[in-house]
Design goal:
Strand order of the largest sheet: 5-4-7-8-9
Largest sheet: 5 strands, antiparallel
CATH superfamily of the largest domain: RNA-binding S4 domain
Length: 238
C-alpha cells in the first residue's frame, strides 16, 4: 500500500509561535495535514491537547484520547492527530466538563477559552465566498472550509451564527457601520472594535475597514476582521 503523501512531522523551529511549544528539543513536532484551516492558522489536535491545554502530559496520552474517539471538534469526532483546529472551532473532550473555543488573544492568532455549555453547539463563521448555481441556488463558503447551499441573504464579509452539527444558519450578522468586529491577525489580534467606515477596494488596494478602538482609529484590510455582533458579541470570545 502506498504511503500518504507529505511529511507527518515538522521541525519545531518552523512551527507557528502561537502553538506554545519549545523551539529546540525535541527536534520534531506533529504537523497539520490539509483540512478546513490553513497550515499557519491552525494547530494539530495533539499539540492542542498537550501544549496548549496541557490536559495530557505526552504525545502517547494524546494519541490514546484521539484514536479512541474522545475528542470532538464542532460536534464531530476527530480521530486524526494531524487534524487542524482553527478560528472559532469548538473542542470537547470526553470526561472533561469544559469545552473550549479558539479565538485570537494574548498577542496570538489562536488562544483557547472556556465556554458555557449552551454555546457548545453554536459557532460563528465568516462568509468568504458566494457562488451562483443552477436554478438560482446560492452556495456560500465559510472561513472554516464549510459550504452550504442556502436561500439566506448574505454577503462576503458577513458572519453567520451556525447551529452544529445541523449546519443551520440561526442568525446573519452584517458587516456594516456600527457593528462590532474582532481583529483576527496582526498586532491588534484579539481586540474588539467598532466599524466606522467600509472602504471599497481599488486596483492596488484591497477592500478596507476603518476601526475605532475608543480614542484610537486604524484602517486595515477587511480580511483581517470578523464581525461578531451589532453592539456586543453574540457568543463568548473572551
Amino acid at each position: 500500500m502506498p504511503s500518504i503523501a507529505g511529511s507527518k512531522k515538522l521541525k519545531r523551529q518552523m512551527a507557528p509561535m502561537f502553538w506554545g511549544i519549545s523551539r529546540k528539543t525535541p527536534r520534531f513536532v506533529t504537523t497539520v495535514r490539509p483540512g478546513p484551516h490553513g497550515k499557519n492558522a491552525s494547530v494539530p489536535i495533539q499539540v492542542f491537547l498537550r501544549d496548549m491545554l496541557k490536559i495530557v502530559t505526552s504525545a502517547r496520552e494524546a494519541h490514546f484520547a484521539i484514536y479512541n474517539g474522545k475528542v470532538k471538534v464542532d460536534c464531530v469526532t476527530r480521530k486524526s492527530i494531524h487534524h487542524g483546529i482553527g478560528l472559532m472551532d469548538v473542542v470537547e473532550l470526553a470526561g472533561v466538563p469544559d469545552a473550549y473555543r479558539l479565538v485570537p488573544g494574548n498577542g496570538h492568532i489562536l488562544h483557547p477559552i472556556k465556554i458555557k455549555d449552551s454555546e457548545k453547539s453554536v459557532k460563528l463563521v465568516k462568509v468568504t465566498n458566494k457562488t451562483t448555481l443552477k436554478k438560482g441556488k446560492t452556495q456560500v463558503g465559510f472561513h472554516d472550509g464549510r459550504t452550504l447551499i442556502s436561500d439566506t441573504t448574505v454577503n462576503v464579509g458577513d458572519s453567520c451564527l451556525m447551529q452544529l452539527p445541523e449546519q443551520k444558519i440561526n442568525e446573519v450578522i452584517k458587516l456594516e457601520k456600527g457593528s462590532k468586529v474582532l481583529v483576527t491577525k496582526g498586532i491588534n489580534a484579539g481586540q474588539l472594535a467598532e466599524v466606522k467606515e467600509i472602504k471599497e477596494g481599488t486596483f492596488v488596494l484591497p477592500r478596507r475597514v476603518l476601526l475605532s478602538f475608543g480614542q484610537r482609529e486604524i484602517e486595515i484590510p477587511i480580511e483581517l476582521v470578523m464581525v461578531v455582533g451589532k453592539k456586543e458579541p453574540v457568543i463568548q470570545i473572551a
